[in-house]
Amino acid sequence: MKYLTTFKELLMESLKDNKKMIIVFYVAFILIMIAAWIVSSNVLSANPLPDFTNATTQTQTGGYESAMDLFIHNELGGIMVYVSSILFGIAAIVSLVYNGMNIGATGALISSLHPNGGLEYIIYLIPHGIFEFTATVIESTAGILLFLFIWRMIKAIIRSDEDEFGKKISHAFEMHKKTLIQSLILMVFATILLIIAAPIEAYLSVPISDLIVGN
């Protein structure tokens, strides 16, 4: 219980301290998704595809994969983004852009292939997307913080007046360990969000979409 309370306190602090970055990333993610949908729709309008009237959401969205498969796939991708972000945070930004474009383009494609496809796709995304999209944004934020920690550590070591290199590292780490801790806490939080999202996507999102749209 003590560890859970400590984690909750650290998480609240991490979210508060990095609130602006998280909001900017979330807004950028949504705008990229919308822009990709619009651009892809225009392209598909100019190059129409055959009408797949009998296509179902199950085939369009990859079928009913198991929750474990979905979680492993998303979590491995998140870890790769996180670790790769040590290189100037590029992977964190690329992840936001790629995922936003992919989701938007897929929406445009499904909309062009299936009656009410766009609405069905949006309804499909909402139940698990609330958690999965947030996890994507949080992972990118954690990746940026990891880069900032390493960058600040290097600068602190270079500027340190300590004689021994070990002391330089120790002093630099103490100065900036909060950034590393927040990075790790946010990454754990993103993992929790993906754990929640996986069973919803695997077992609920498609039935909910079918029920509301009427398939």
Explain how this protein is built.
- With 215 residues, the chain is an all-alpha fold.
- 84% of the residues lie in helices and 0% in strands.
- It has 8 helices and no strands.
- Helix 2 runs parallel beside helix 5 (90-113).
- The longest helix is centred in the middle third of the chain and has 43 residues, at 117-159.
- The termini are far apart.
- The model is unreliable at 53-64 (pLDDT under 50).
Properties at a glance:
mainly alpha, elongated
SSE succession: HHHHHHHH
Number of strands: 0
Overall residue-averaged pLDDT value: 88
The 3D shape can be described as elongated
Structural class: mainly alpha
Alpha-carbon Rg, integer = 21 Å
- Measured by DSSP, the beta-strand proportion falls in under 5%
Helix count from the secondary structure assignment: 8
> What percent of the residues sit in helical stretches (DSSP H or I)?
over 70%
Largest sheet data: none
Distance between the termini: 45 Å
- Detail the poorly predicted runs: 53-64
